[in-house]
Amino acid sequence: MVRSRDLVKQPKRVFCMPAEWEPHEATWIAWPHLQSDWPGKFAAIPWVYVEIVRHLQQSEPVRILVNDRPTETRVQKMLCRAGIDTKRTEFFRYRTNRCWVRDYGPIFVRTQERSVALTDWKFNGWAKYSNWRADNAIPQKIGNTLGRERIVPEHHSRQIVLEGGSIEVNGEGLLLTTEECLLDPIQARNPQLQRVHLEQAFADYLGIRKVLWLGRGVTGDDTHGHVDGIARFVGPRTIVAACETDPKDANYAPLRDNIDRLRSMTDTEGRPLEVLELPMPCPLYFKGQRLPASYANFYIANRSVLVPTFNDPNDLIVLELLGRLFPDRIVTGIHSVDLVLGLGTLHCLTQQQPAE
Q1: Is 16 a catalytic residue?
Q2: Predicted pLDDT of residue 2
Q3: From the centroid of its chain, how far is CA 35?
Q4: What is the pLDDT of residue 14?
Q5: Is beta strand 154-155 parallel, antiparallel or unpaired with respect to 158-159?
Q6: Which is nearest to 336 in space by CA: 293, 303, 272?
Q7: Contact partners, residue 301, CB within 8 Å, separation at least 6
Q8: What are phi and psi of 222, to 5 degrees?
Q9: Taking a C-beta distance cutoff of 8 angstroms, is the pair 218, 292 a contact?
Q10: Of the residues 99, 181, 243, 348, which is catalytic?
Q11: Vertex 191: Cα angle to 185 and 194 (nearest 5)
Q12: Checking CA distances to 106, which of 18, 66, 168, 308 falls within 20 to 30 Å?
């Protein structure tokens, strides 16, 4: 097994990607519009988004990407019908291909001058889909609108491909990711880059001092191994990791391997990590397709934690566990049985913008 290691080469300029639980200026989302992502169930999805906005705007402003003015008007009417204060929502008419802004939106960082800048990694549709160019343009548009510094990560003058859902940070130099997503030849984002090149890019652009490499993601994940479906930081040295208890389930072995890896790893100071097991919901299928349902895809807002739920006995167990881990936040379940048909849930559709 390849273990994590400390990075020794220092970047010329220091950036740091804050942890998700650090204060936000706002949360970004993109309004869903690609009906083929939810075949036969799309009508319910905008109302799931309304519920997400209802909870988020109680914590922080919500910045919503919409394709055009008619969409903006329609969404405003839906929010008003749900009794939502639209004064805490902002609309940006930027055309998108899909709604998974975690993966193509800017990854915000703090600079050594303590300002908030954005990193603009290339997005190529998870090296799987052909319709991604509108999504790839979003970080530059957001940077121009906000007037924020925009940093384009490159290796040998080639923009590096990276999705936000493929990484998870603790804000103190640790980064979680998976070999399946970033190193496997299937859906290869950066076939020209090796492990050491990616680790150096994380150091240069995100302030990472140590990368913790897990193995594989959950079955049914069309991103081919995003880490935000399997393991999440809930504190500087505390990680919740998805765990499957049925030895016959396809997720059993890879999730057990990830937990074993984590329990052998340490933080940047050599201290062991605290690893808490997060149960998986019972398998969900639609028309014979296994869906990537996982409680690990929760989102941490300023005063709340939104958790995907699946009409499953483990819903309450997970809500109670996260409630203990985030005693200063309201932990709320968002019904995601329909949402996960799009092959993502709450963390996939949000992106935090840190406060100055």
Answers
A1: no
A2: 41
A3: 22
A4: 85
A5: antiparallel
A6: 293
A7: 24, 27, 55, 56, 59, 60, 329, 352
A8: -75, -5
A9: yes
A10: 348
A11: 95
A12: 308
Residues 6+ apart with CB under 8 A from 261: 1, 212, 213, 214, 215
What does the mean pLDDT of the chain come to? 95
- The helix (H) or strand (E) run that includes residue 205 is helix 195-206
Residue 135 carries which side chain, given as an amino acid letter? D
Terminal-residue alpha carbon distance, the chain: 40
Q: Cβ distance 151 to 205 under 8 Å? A: yes
Q: Where are the domains of the chain?
A: 15-354
Q: Mind listing the pLDDT tens digit for each residue in 306-323?
A: 999 999 999 999 999 999
Per the CB < 8 A criterion, the answer to whether 297 and 347 are in contact is yes
What is the mean predicted confidence (pLDDT) over 187-203? 98
Q: Does 10 score more than 60 pLDDT?
A: no
Topology of domain 15-354, CATH: L-arginine/glycine Amidinotransferase; Chain A (3.75.10)
> Which two three-digit tokens encode residue 198?
């990616």
Q: Residue 7 — very low, low, confident or very high, per pLDDT cuts 50/70/90?
A: very low
Stretch 196-220: mean pLDDT, rounded? 98
